[in-house]
Specification:
alpha/beta; five-stranded parallel β-sheet; elongated; 571 residues; TIM Barrel; Rossmann fold
Length: 571
């Protein structure tokens, strides 16, 4: 196997290819004789011939030795054409001359060095050529590591480094840091493919790069669909936003895919660049709470939320140790019989904080998902729910399966299936009574890996529910490949089926898909009798929502179990 070190050694020992351009044959031959033992030498008699040779050999050309005074195309014109060619502009050029005036002009054009005529000291020629090739190859390697290959923007490390230098050059005046993110970029990859997604990123990168150039700022691609700009002074956020959306529209047509933008104005110099980037990103993410807003500036309101979030993160471990988290259960009813019958429940987390009171899961779940801490909360719920299933079975002699959420962070853990199986066995229950809810959007990110991981959980006997169906943009073909037992119809589709014909037809279509795939359907968010009756008539298997009950604590949930057991005795 060829290692990286082997490759480097072979590259260093390989003969470099040099192009000698001179209209005097004796000069060409003389230089060729001096260099041919150590270099692969190409010859050209004028600039026009040299340009053709250079274009044909651009992938391996290490250096050009250029005479300036030649017929057809002189060295100056050749130099200009080389510098205009993207593939050749970084090839170093050593000028062959003895004229001082020519040296100055060539330097201004970008010459790397000079070799004076006549060529009477071969050692000097060798030394100069070796030094320039090493210098430029080293520079190119450094340059290659600085930039993101897809967009041509700085990568994250160099962006941070150059931002510090930027502050030193511009110590006075305000600074502005802008964070950019693409809404639902995973959808573009899922629907159009990664190659098309790369074209979208390249188009945004080009727009960002042009804007940074116009404003004399810095720009980077930080991660897959996240970009930053650092400006000296204030930029025009609306102008940048419009330019990016124009680029998106050219590729996506009249799409609702848009960018989010967060701006940290008057960036505090005492905070390091990473902290400033974090604050700009907080402003960017705050736009998620308001669909009509696409640009947000970091302000006191966001600062307060930041402090609130930091408090929640700080208190997480203590909350788990003290059981401040409470698991509530929302009943699910099978509705295809004469009467609805309690069939299972969904475990839902609540946080009763000793100082802040009841904290909505809408506040802490997205926070912990974003910073990777959600796994701690999920594992708390998994163990509590498993223990509760066992307790109810022991107390009432009846099995009430419970659904628990498996987040996108958890799902990529290779030993997840084994971990869940251990939790179930330690609680003394069966995997068949433990339902795992996986959001549809999780399937669209890493489809092949997801299918393998979820199949592993199914093989252990777990029931897999696809949660939030209809919001993750799965293709119909992809649905046929995904391993799941139950399709959970998201509440946004149920909300208006009793008063909107289009909503009704859409749910009928989804029910048809489920019938074709031979999977059960759970409709969540059902509140009204009209919704219940429509779904029952359509053949929906299970209904969950306020029509039956809001989520309740474990003690209150027992009333539903008693109702079922009493009904079974009477029946």
């Amino acid at each position: 196997m060829v290692t990286q070190n082997d490759f480097v050694k072979s590259r260093l020992s390989m003969k470099r290819r040099i192009l000698i351009v001179d209209d005097e044959e004796i000069n060409r031959l003389m230089l060729g004789n001096i260099l041919e033992d150590d270099y692969e030498v190409l010859l050209a008699a004028d600039g026009s011939e040299a340009l053709n040779v250079a274009k044909n050999e651009k992938q391996r050309l290490s250096l050009i030795l250029l005479d300036l005074h030649m017929p057809v195309m002189d060295g100056y014109e050749f130099f200009e054409k080389v510098r205009e060619d993207e593939a050749l502009k970084d090839v170093p050029v050593i000028v062959l001359t003895s004229e001082k005036e020519a040296e100055v002009r060539s330097l201004k054009m970008g010459a790397a060095d000079f070799i004076p005529k006549p060529y009477d000291i071969p050692e000097v020629i060798h030394t100069r050529i070796d030094r320039i090739i090493q210098l430029y190859e080293g520079r190119n390697i450094i340059t290659a590591t600085q930039f993101d290959t897809l967009t041509g923007l700085f990568n994250r490390e160099y962006f941070c480094e150059y931002s510090t230098i930027f502050d030193q050059y511009y110590p006075e005046g305000s600074k502005e840091l802008i964070a950019l993110n693409i809404n639902r970029f995973h959808v573009i990859n899922a629907v159009h493919g990664r190659e098309f997604g790369d074209r979208v990123l390249a188009a945004i990168g080009k727009t960002v790069k042009e804007y940074a150039g116009e404003t004399k700022g810095l720009a980077c691609r930080y991660s897959a669909d996240q970009f930053y700009l650092y400006l000296n002074g204030e930029g025009n956020g609306e102008e940048l936003y419009a330019a990016i959306n124009n680029a998106l529209n050219e590729l996506l047509g009249n799409s609702d895919t848009r960018v989010r933008m967060g701006i940290y104005k008057e960036a505090e110099k005492e905070a390091d660049i990473s902290k400033r980037m974090e604050l700009a990103l907080l402003a960017c993410n705050s736009t998620k709470q308001d669909p009509g807003r696409h640009i947000s500036c970091y302000d006191e309101k966001i600062r307060e939320k930041e402090h609130y979030d930091e408090l929640l993160i700080h208190d997480l471990d203590k909350a788990i140790a003290e059981k401040q988290f409470k698991v509530f259960y929302q009943p699910k009813y099978g509705v295809q019989g004469e009467k609805p019958v309690l069939s299972s429940a969904e475990a839902l987390i609540r946080w009763v904080h000793p100082e802040l009171g009841m904290i909505s899961p809408g506040k802490f779940i997205p926070l912990f998902e974003n910073n990777g801490l959600i796994g701690k909360v999920d594992r708390y719920v998994w163990k509590e729910a498993a223990a509760q299933i066992a307790q109810w079975e022991k107390k009432y002699g009846i099995k009430i399966p419970v659904s628990v959420n498996v987040s996108r962070v958890d799902i990529m853990s290779e030993d997840l299936a084994d971990e869940l199986e251990t939790i179930v066995k330690e609680a003394g229950i069966e995997t068949a009574d433990y339902y795992l809810e996986v959001t549809e959007s999780a399937y669209t990110d890493n489809q092949a890996d997801m299918i393998s991981l979820v199949k592993g959980m199914k093989d252990k006997g777990f029931t897999i529910e696809m949660d939030d169906f209809g919001t993750g943009y799965s293709s119909l073909n992809m649905l046929n490949e995904l391993p799941f037992d139950v399709l959970k119809l998201d509440m946004v589709f149920v909300r208006n089926i009793h008063k909107d014909e289009r909503a009704l037809k859409l749910v009928e279509f989804i029910m048809g898909i489920a019938k074709y795939l031979k999977v059960k359907v759970v409709a969540e968010g059902v509140e009204y009798k009209e919704q219940y009756e429509i779904l029952k008539e359509m053949g929906c298997d299970v209904i969950q929502g306020y029509y039956f009950s809001k989520p309740v604590c474990a003690e209150d949930f027992e009333a539903f179990i008693k109702e079922r057991t009493e009904s079974e005795v009477q029946g």
